[in-house]
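Check out a protein:
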Amino acid sequence: MDRTPPAVRILIADDHQIYRIGLRRVFESEAGFQVVGEAADGEQAIRLAKQLKPEILLLDLAMPRRTGLEALRELSAAAIPMRVIVLTAAIEPPQVVEALQLGARGIVLKSVGAAQMLIKSVRAVMAGQYWVGHESVSDLVKTLRDLMPQVAEGARKKTFGLTSRELEIVGKIVLGCTNKDIAHEASITEDTVKRHLTNIFDKTGVSNRLELALFALKHQLVGDL
């Protein structure tokens, strides 16, 4: 019986034809990958992603007719089950944060020797990890926290109805604390922590701890950590 896993289906979106051809050749020369389509601009990337439903979308940041971030925003709203890796020659930390918050699973810099790095990034992302710059990332929240500017004390404006205790728990979640850790540090039971988290999820509209951490960072619910 042939137990070879199916090839990873890849859509390449970049406005430079020569670069697209180069990427196609890179992936077609590697076992386990299949390039299912190419897009030359943001609008085409959105249309082909919805039509082809690839497992990986390699999305250039700077493209005509919808930038990479604009395309990513629309595809994120469409909830297409694929993993997006953003390609860029240069990117500032705020753009990295925005791309990851919009659902990108990787950021890969276009540079000499980037082909093998891109293959590694695709494999890492398919394995459930994130990739930022030159390496895989196991702690996305920490990476985002490090990239985002520190929030000045008193700069918070909207708390979404969260109590001081709930804001304290949100801060612990951003730090990566478990329910057990939070219960111990706050001198409450784990059941109480769970009840607080249920209320926090309801008030913020998120459904899990990672979404909560990203929400907290985006809306500056936590100060210096």
Q: What stands out?
A: Confidence is low (pLDDT under 50) at residues 151-156.
